[in-house]
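no rush on this but wanted to send it before i forget. what follows is a protein written twice so to speak, once as letters and once as structure tokens for the fold. mainly i need to know what kind of three dimensional shape the backbone takes. thanks a lot i owe you, the record is right below.
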Amino acid sequence: MYAMVEIQGGQYKAAKGEKLTVDLVAHEKGDVVEFDNVLMIRDDKKISIGEPYVKGAKVKAVVEDHIRDSKVLVYKYKRRKRYKRLKGHRQHYTILRVEEISAK
């Protein structure tokens, strides 16, 4: 059984026991988070597709950790103008462990 769930504007495939890396979620480590924006659920026998969401469906997950991605460097340069800029960025992510997928 798996579900397609929308978390902060992104769509993720969630299966029980799987770990998801999503954009930063404002919860502490160990918190249980429920997402009710379920777009689709696939069971062994049938598929439920929402319009836009499946009614009564929820995905329950536990916040495992908050991490930062590796640095991405952005370099701007204009020749013969003495113009150089170097900027770095590290994206924040949250690791979620899917506990339960429920559909009514």
